[in-house]
């Protein structure tokens, strides 16, 4: 029988640094909740808003798969591998921090805020050579269907990471249903609702709610109101 | 009040500098850096550490050596002086 966990949007941790407002689905920074450490290999799900002209100065990372998904506005990225890029709504960015990487991220606009998800997944191999990639997705490919945006496979759709994980985005109209079939045994799926309302396994999920489901091969998603959501399938043990 | 003594072992000097700065940003914690198993063991002769963090650049053999040598919580630090650091230390102390 499937096991589930529900995280209402208003139970997330919150950081307000003035220029940065961040909601943490799992313990991060000064937000520590021993019951919210991770969902399997999914360790960080931060819902960030950065003021115009502001951003994160240079800082290091190592041994983590870091995925950024802009929701509104543009995010400028610079790193120690000489990558310089702006990612916007419709793009996905991935960094395998491996042996170590320094980077900085700033709002590309001086006035309007940028909103993005920052997602960290524990890698399945440590100390790899750092790598960076980004991809522009066709948003039409997620209308009333699930669009794969990340996988463990270099030749598959979306970006890839060093973990047995698959991410999908969906933008569904009210009244539709879709089924998600898990890709790997032992994996679970953490669902994050970007907007709208859906129902999974009897649980109604609204904007920014999170829901984990595991010990199942598949589950059904019922779309109660027009909804955009992200499915993150990750190993439950790693 | 006695400070919590945290030993961070790793080989990436710039990342270790960040890890140390973050640890020491908490008034109740004191961080010490080692860049090898031997240095970690030597430092432990003089300081009663509460937690060991395994940081950037350690290979599996060194990580296993440290886990075997220290009888206190030894935890892998992921992310390189990141937003995970505090939670990793809090969790190790809780356990």
TrEMBL record, chain A:
Cofactor details (free text): Binds 1 Fe cation per subunit.
Domain of life (superkingdom): Bacteria
Cofactor requirement: Fe cation
GO molecular function, one term: metal ion binding
CDD domains listed in its UniProt record: cupin_Yhhw_N
Domain named Quercetin 2,3-dioxygenase C-terminal cupin: residues: 149-234
SUPFAM superfamilies, per the entry: RmlC-like cupins
Start and end residues of each Pirin N-terminal domain: 13-121
Assigned keywords, A-Z: Iron, Metal-binding
Chain positions recorded as Fe cation binding sites: 59, 61, 103, 105
Recorded family membership: Belongs to the pirin family.
PANTHER family the UniProt entry points to: QUERCETIN 2,3-DIOXYGENASE (PTHR43212:SF3)
Protein name per Swiss-Prot or TrEMBL: Pirin family protein
From TrEMBL, chain B:
Domain of life: Bacteria
Protein name: Response regulator receiver protein
Organism: Mucilaginibacter corticis
């Amino acid at each position: 029988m499937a096991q589930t966990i529900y995280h209402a949007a208003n139970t997330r941790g919150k950081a307000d640094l003035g220029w940065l407002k961040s909601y943490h689905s799992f313990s991060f920074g000064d937000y520590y909740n021993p019951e919210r450490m991770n969902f399997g290999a999914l360790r960080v799900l931060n819902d960030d808003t950065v003021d115009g002209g502001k951003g994160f100065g240079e800082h290091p990372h190592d041994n983590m798969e870091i995925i950024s998904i802009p929701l509104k506005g543009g995010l400028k990225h610079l790193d120690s591998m000489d990558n310089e890029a702006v990612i916007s709504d419709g793009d996905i960015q991935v960094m395998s921090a491996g042996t170590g990487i320094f980077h900085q991220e700033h709002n590309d606009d001086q006035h309007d805020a940028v909103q993005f998800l920052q997602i960290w997944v524990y890698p399945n191999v440590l100390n790899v050579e750092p790598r960076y990639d980004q991809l522009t997705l066709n948003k039409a490919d997620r209308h009333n269907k699930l669009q794969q945006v990340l996988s463990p496979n270099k030749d598959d759709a979306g970006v890839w990471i060093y973990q047995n994980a698959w991410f999908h985005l969906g933008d569904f109209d009210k009244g539709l249903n879709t089924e998600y079939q898990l890709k790997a045994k032992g994996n679970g799926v953490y669902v994050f609702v970007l907007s709208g309302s859906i129902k999974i396994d009897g649980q109604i999920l609204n904007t920014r709610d999170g829901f984990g489901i595991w010990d199942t091969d598949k589950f059904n998603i019922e779309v109660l109101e027009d909804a955009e959501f992200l499915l993150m399938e990750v190993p439950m043990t790693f | 009040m006695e400070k919590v003594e945290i030993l961070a072992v790793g080989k990436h000097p710039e990342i270790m500098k960040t890890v140390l700065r973050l640890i020491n940003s908490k008034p109740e914690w004191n961080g010490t850096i080692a860049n090898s198993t031997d240095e970690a063991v030597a430092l432990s002769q003089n300081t009663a550490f509460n937690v060991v963090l395994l940081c950037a650049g350690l290979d599996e053999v060194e990580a296993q050596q440290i886990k075997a040598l220290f009888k206190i919580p030894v935890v892998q630090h992921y992310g390189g002086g990141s937003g995970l650091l505090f939670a990793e230390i809090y969790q190790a102390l809780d356990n």
